[in-house]
UniProtKB/TrEMBL annotation:
Annotated protein name in UniProt: Polyketide cyclase
InterPro entries: ASHA1/2-like_C, START-like_dom_sf
Domain annotation Activator of Hsp90 ATPase homologue 1/2-like C-terminal: ranges: 22-157
Organism listed in the record: Pseudomonas reidholzensis
Family annotation (CDD domains): SRPBCC_CalC_Aha1-like_3 (cd08896)
Family statement drawn from the similarity comment of this UniProt entry: Belongs to the AHA1 family.
Length: 163
């Protein structure tokens, strides 16, 4: 798979969200790549992320456990495909560690952290394997959920995380 590069347009079955964050790219990248920070913001409002495991290398594990207010748990596992600190992270649920194919691949995420006048142009793209998966993710509330996670990320990097 060739990963799309900036300027080459959206992937075929893509959902995305973008925002200018008042923090440098290195800081926003840290909030994404260090479990102790990611657990503070990952997931929509009301959700918690009590567990996060990261092996920050290509093929390394990326696993989160999100818990809804009613106690329902969502375990997500995949691998990193690309790590270009502090500019870009790419991960997918298409594989488990050891490049073992997953039972039901759903998406690949491409997260970029572009410097813009001392701030970060944050863009998260979710690429789906099919139009129906993309539609299902949108109906699940992609924009609201990822937007609420982004609100929480902004709070972490602008108010809690030291420089």
């Amino acid at each position: 798979m060739t990963l799309a590069q900036p300027g080459h347009g959206p992937a075929q079955h893509e959902l995305s969200i973008s925002r200018l964050i008042d923090a440098p790219p290195a800081k926003v990248f840290r909030a994404w790549s260090e479990p102790e920070w990611l657990m503070q913001w990952w997931g929509p409002h009301g959700m918690t992320t009590p567990e996060c495991e990261m092996q920050l290398w290509v093929g390394g594990l990326f696993r989160t456990l999100m818990r809804a207010p009613d106690g329902t748990e969502y375990n997500n596992q995949g691998v990193f495909l690309e790590i270009a600190a502090p500019r870009r992270l790419v991960f997918t649920d298409a594989f488990k560690p050891g490049w073992v194919p997953s039972d039901k691949p759903f998406m690949t995420a491409v997260v970029t952290f572009d410097e813009e006048h001392g701030k970060t142009r944050y863009t998260a793209r979710a690429w789906h394997w099919s139009a129906s998966d993309c539609r299902a993710h949108e109906e699940m509330g992609f924009h609201q959920g990822w937007g609420e996670s982004l609100d929480r990320l902004v709070e972490v990097v602008t108010q809690r995380m030291p420089d």
